[in-house]
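Worked example 2:
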Amino acid sequence: MAFTTHCWKKFLRLEPLILSGLKRGRWAFLALSLVLGGMAAHAETPVELQALKLERQDAAIYMSGTWQFEMPSALEDALLKGITLYFVTEVDISQERWYVYSQRVAHAERHVRLFYQPLTRRWRVNVSPQPFNVSGLGMSLGQSYDTAEEAMGVVRRLVQWRIANATDYNADAKQTISINFKLDLKQLPRPLQIGAAGQSDWNIGYNKTQRLELRP
């Protein structure tokens, strides 16, 4: 009886470590699955920005458009396995100066968190102006959807997104806007970052710089 009690107390002390190890093992297994599943050659996922509209209304500059890309099957499988995906859009407005490098006059970010809820069989989307590993869900807007296509519509669409103040725009100066969109691997658990790195199915991105011209 004393031996059994001693072993039980020892197990209770080790239980948190055992559970932690199982959790790490789960992520390691998923990361290994990503590596093995992505060993076959795949083309990089193309991304286009359609119907881009930049306009000034009242005291702000707004951006609208649609990200056009197909979700790779590897990412669909990852979502169904309980992996949360993060997409980020970044915009920088810069102004040229003849005596030094261009000056950034405005910056905006849009972070989208997409995941599947197996118990309810619904898709959840959260949108935040900063990374979720910094803000949690306190500053985000969230909503649930019945289908993956409805949820992806939120990921793809930019509707009247405020990217700068109206005073940041100078029609008499040469200003450019840089638009970047990507699947943000840095917000994944670290084992998954390692597993997804270098896998073309996880390499979703868009980068373009152009002259800033606003619609009246």
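The beta strands are 48-57, 60-68, 85-97, 100-117, 122-128, 141-145, 157-165, 175-183, 205-211. The mean pLDDT is 80.
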